[in-house]
């Protein structure tokens, strides 16, 4: 279930199972907007928090923001794994990157504020547009924005970056060169690296590349 206003989700079981806790996390839109997270700081366990109040603070090189609970309750547990690997909340926000577990105290009255994705897809689309967030098939570890350069020159920089990063890392490349799509396919075939995704938005081409060897 989602609370679009705060960009969070909550796994809401039936009333009988809610006593064991409701898991809260950030949506992929917030993760995409924030970029690769560098820090997650939590409220202490057993603290009672009201709906809309912070249970954690996330931070990246371009973003600092609160993770606000969609429900009133007591913090049972925080995902302490994010202290050492905050990037999990960026890469897997609906799985290993969950933020906190809450024991709700007003579930019956507050459940109505949560929505299924079929009901709030329009709100999320508007939020994504407002934030300028880009949700890709793989979360980028590195970003390369080259505007006003020929794609051949851009690919030289991409080659240099690929040569020094670890296998498995993902790069976002953005270019405004009209030949970019053709050149990227040629680069993929020559380099034998993985072109995970390509798209055009406005006058810009977005490519997600994964280093595989």
Question: Summarize this, please?
Answer:
By secondary structure, this protein is α+β, with helices and mostly antiparallel strands. The protein has helices at 28-34, 81-84, 87-91, 107-110, 117-131, 151-164, 180-191, and strands at 2-3, 8-11, 22-26, 37-42, 48-49, 54-60, 64-68, 73-78, 100-104, 142-146, 170-175, 194-201, 204-210.
CATH topology term of the largest domain: OB fold (Dihydrolipoamide Acetyltransferase, E2P)
What composes the largest sheet? 6 strands, antiparallel
Q: Mean pLDDT, as a whole number?
A: 89
User: Rg to the nearest angstrom?
Assistant: 20 Å
CATH class descriptor name of the largest domain: Mainly Beta
Query: Fraction of residues in helices?
Result: 25-40%
| Continuous helix count | 7
Q: Which outline best applies? A: elongated
In whole angstroms, the N-to-C terminal distance is 39 Å
């Amino acid at each position: 279930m989602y609370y679009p206003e705060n960009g969070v989700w909550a796994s809401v079981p039936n009333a009988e199972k809610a006593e064991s806790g409701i898991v809260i996390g950030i949506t992929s839109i917030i993760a995409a907007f924030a970029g690769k997270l560098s820090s997650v700081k939590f409220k202490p366990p057993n603290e009672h928090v009201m709906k809309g109040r912070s249970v954690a603070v996330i931070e990246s090189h371009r973003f600092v923001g609160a993770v606000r609970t969609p429900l009133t309750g007591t913090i049972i547990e925080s995902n302490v794994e994010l202290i050492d690997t905050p990037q999990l909340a960026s890469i897997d926000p609906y799985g290993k990157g969950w933020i906190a577990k809450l024991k709700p105290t007003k579930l019956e009255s507050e459940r109505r504020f949560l929505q299924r994705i079929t009901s709030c897809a329009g709100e999320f689309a508007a939020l994504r547009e407002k934030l300028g967030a880009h949700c890709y098939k793989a979360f980028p570890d590195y970003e390369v924005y080259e505007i006003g350069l020929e794609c051949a020159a851009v690919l030289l920089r991409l080659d240099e970056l690929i040569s020094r990063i670890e296998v498995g890392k993902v790069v976002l490349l953005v270019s405004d060169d009209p030949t970019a799509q053709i050149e990227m396919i040629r680069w993929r075939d020559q380099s034998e690296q993985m072109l995970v995704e390509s798209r055009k938005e406005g006058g810009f081409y977005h490519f997600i590349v994964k280093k595989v060897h």
